[in-house]
Structure formats: structure tokens, C-alpha cells
Amino acid sequence: MCYSAQIDSQYKKYKRRWGADISKFVRLYWDRSQGSKAKIPKAVDAMFAEPADADEREIARLIAEFNAAEESRLQQELFKQRKRVADAVRTLQTKTTKKAQDDQRIGSEKVQWCLDKIAGLKRTELVQDDMRIFPGWYAPVMVIENGTHTIKPMLYQCRLPSRSKTDVPPLQVERHAIRFCRSSCPPSKRVFRRCYASHGNGYGFAAGQATRDA
N or C: which end of the chain has fewer CB within 10 A? Predict the structure, then answer.
């Protein structure tokens, strides 16, 4: 089973067992629809691909609207970059300039980038990269608050040991998540970083298994 499928299956298992509240996800996706620029992995979107209640249906609607807006933005960028390449080719037919060569090269790369992003938005089958989280991205973590199980989107962060916890906003340091760092930080950085996810004292299943602070 791939990492993305594990996220999805863990979510369904936890919700089936505990009936976890996911209202924080509704707020996260709503905030993103209002321009918060929250980074959410595609594997987390997939958790709500088959909505079973009102909250999940609302999240699915917000995801669909966001993806449609993203596709429109990417299509506009694709048109811009294709025009950039075409103009560069026309210039190179009459004379060779560094600007035209750069425009052709960079524009061609951005055209391919846009096409890949659009294909990723339309793709329904998850792949390994869909599970990746980076500092500043959100991942699902189950916590218990006042005896109630809640699945919260937690912000994944890294900080250097030279920085104290007071250097990081409080919501980003309550939960130690060093295992997440090992999976996403570059190998050369892993021994120098400590990672934190916001909202504290929870079990993370973004990595396909539960992890908890010592």
C-alpha cells in the first residue's frame, strides 16, 4: 500500500472507530478558498473524495472549486509561456540573442511545468509524491480534547537547534514530530533540525503510522 493510500485508510479507520470531528478541516479548506494559500497534500484531499456526511461534502465542494480555480490560473500561465516561446522562436529565426535563447529555454520548461500541474489536478489515482509534506504544509493528526477524538490539520514546521521555541509562533511548537522531519528534510539537514506540528499532544498518521511525543 502506498503512503497516500495509508493516509486515506488510516483516516477512515479512525473516523469509523471514534467518529472523529473534522470541523477544523472545514475551516482550513474554507480559509484556503478565501486566499489563505494553505499548502495541503493531494493525499489529504483524497480523504474526502467519497464524502459521507455534510462536513465531508462541504470539504469536497471546496476542493473542487479550488482545483477549478487553479486549473484556470495554470491555463492562463500556460498561454503566456507558449506565447513567450513562440516570440523567442520568431526572434531566433532572424538573429540570435541571449534573451531570446533564455526565453525559449525557460518558457519551454514552464510550459511543461504547467502541463504537469494541470495533469496532476485532473489525476484521480494517487502517486507517491502526493503524500509528501514540507515545512509550512498541513497534515492530519488525531488528538483528544476534553475526551473527544478530533482530527486536526496540523502545520508541519522545522526549526534549527540554535532557535529557541520562543522564536517560533506558539501554535507551531506544541507537538514534537521528529519522524516527519526524517521523511521530508534533506539528508544533509536531518541531524540539525527538530520539527514541530501545531496544536500539540496528538497522534500523527500522516506518515502511515501513529507517532507520539516521548
Answer: C
Number of domains observed in the structure of the chain: 2
* Regions of the chain where pLDDT drops below 50: 1-5, 169-214
The torsion angles phi and psi of 116, rounded to 5 degrees, stand at -65, -40
pLDDT per position as a tens digit, 31-48: 999 998 899 999 889 888
Rounded alpha-carbon distances, angstroms, from residue 166 to 68, 169, 170, 171, 202: 39, 7, 7, 11, 21
Enclosing domain of residue 76:
66-122
Please count the other Cβ atoms lying within 10 Å of the Cβ belonging to residue 50.
10
pTM for this prediction:
0.68
Asked whether 89 and 118 are in contact (CB, 8 A), the reply is: no
Contact 171, 198 (CB under 8 A): yes
Residue 81 makes CB contacts below 8 A (sequence gap 6+) with 107, 110, 111, 114
The reply to whether 200 and 136 lie within a common domain is yes
Q: Is the separation of the CB atoms in 7 and 205 below 8 Å?
A: yes
152/197 same-domain check: yes
